[in-house]
């Protein structure tokens, strides 16, 4: 029997995000119906609203979510009714060329629900990142549900952020950059993803962690989350400042959490010889980059992009939840405010002002 629930939808490019009634079908083969508890407000959702991801309107927004399994398709064995889960957008197929090579974190054919959720008039919805979790219920592929040890519901807002931004940042540090104990790390851009990268660098044992941003408020938060040095980019030469904090050599790892040519160029030249650059900030499709090929050759090292923190949810989510439970990973610090479904548009505006690391929608 289909379920009619409230959800946040954007009907056309740059239209406001509004609460609408939608219809969610019961799960079919390989699918799971989830009662959503919390969902973080991520900039990617706003990119969907602005038509920067695609033009398959109307979109059902939301993807950084926790919830409980309400029903599963007949063939689903990975999760069961009542399980608490974090939703993810990397449900690995196990069959593509990346999976066959054992690189499941690069799966090229990730699964989504086959059935479509709709508006009450039958108009099909495109769920953001295949999830669509600004909703009382959502339908996903069972592989998009990562079961976690049962936590008190008061922790859902924090652990749900592993579904996208926080995982992207921590994974950029731990997985993509593979930061090692004693290394120096600089992170350019200290929003939610960049601050998570700082947290990841601290977990990895980096001894020098340099936070770079234009906003003094973000630098203050970065310092509280583990940065040993801060650089205010509006008043300081970023490359020279990073070199000054690393004995004149440059950092072993520089993570660009902004994703524009200026910050990537800073990252490239602020690293040590044979150092690593990791791009985790999502660039606009119109942007291009120019670097002297001789400099790319002469400086050595590696230039990497980090997709979703190169994470494997079934491996990384439970590990990070364990660290959270042990008090070694402060996910609560990322939850700046809690809002309702009808406040998503305002949360976008708060995010754009730089007033939050994350707003989290509490649904049930």
Automatic annotation (TrEMBL):
InterPro entries: ADH-like_C, ADH-like_N, ADH_Zn_CS, ER, GroES-like_sf, MycoS_dep_FDH, NAD(P)-bd_dom_sf. Its cofactor is Zn(2+). It holds the Pfam family ADH_N. SUPFAM superfamilies: GroES-like (SSF50129), NAD(P)-binding Rossmann-fold domains (SSF51735). Transmembrane segments: none annotated. Belongs to the zinc-containing alcohol dehydrogenase family. This is S-(Hydroxymethyl)mycothiol dehydrogenase. It comes from Nesterenkonia halobia. The lineage of its organism: Bacteria, Bacillati, Actinomycetota, Actinomycetes, Micrococcales.
């Amino acid at each position: 029997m289909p379920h009619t629930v409230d959800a946040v939808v954007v009907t056309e490019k740059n239209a406001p995000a509004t609460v609408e009634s939608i219809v969610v079908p019961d799960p079919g083969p390989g699918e799971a119906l989830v009662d959503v508890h919390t969902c973080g407000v991520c900039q990617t959702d706003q990119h969907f609203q602005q038509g920067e991801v695609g033009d398959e309107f109307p979109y059902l927004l939301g993807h950084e979510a926790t919830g409980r399994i309400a029903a599963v398709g007949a063939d689903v064995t990975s999760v069961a009714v009542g399980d608490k889960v974090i939703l993810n957008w990397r449900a690995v197929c196990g069959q593509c060329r990346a999976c066959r090579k054992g690189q499941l974190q690069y799966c090229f054919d990730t699964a989504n629900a086959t059935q479509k959720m709709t508006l009450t008039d039958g108009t099909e919805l495109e769920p953001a990142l295949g999830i669509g979790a600004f909703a009382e219920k959502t339908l996903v592929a069972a592989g998009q549900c990562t079961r976690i040890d049962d936590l008190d519901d008061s922790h859902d807002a924090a652990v749900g952020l592993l579904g996208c931004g926080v995982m992207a940042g921590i994974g950029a540090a731990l997985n993509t950059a593979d930061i090692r104990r004693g290394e120096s790390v600089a992170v350019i851009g200290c929003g939610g993803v960049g601050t998570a990268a700082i947290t990841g660098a601290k977990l990895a044992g980096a001894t020098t962690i340099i936070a770079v941003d234009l906003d003094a408020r973000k630098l203050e938060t970065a310092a509280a989350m583990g940065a040993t040095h801060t650089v205010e980019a509006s008043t300081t030469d970023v490359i020279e400042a990073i070199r000054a904090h690393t004995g004149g050599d440059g950092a072993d790892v520089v993570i660009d959490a902004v994703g524009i040519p200026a910050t990537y160029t800073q990252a490239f030249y602020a690293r040590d010889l044979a150092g690593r650059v990791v791009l985790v900030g999502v660039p606009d499709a119109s942007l291009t980059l120019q670097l002297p090929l001789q400099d790319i050759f002469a400086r050595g090292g590696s230039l990497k992009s980090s997709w979703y923190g190169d994470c494997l949810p079934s491996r990384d989510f439970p590990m990070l939840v364990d660290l959270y439970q042990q008090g070694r990973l402060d996910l609560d610090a990322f939850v700046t405010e809690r809002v309702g479904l009808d406040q998503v548009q305002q949360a976008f505006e708060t995010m754009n002002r730089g007033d939050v690391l994350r707003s989290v929608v509490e649904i049930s």
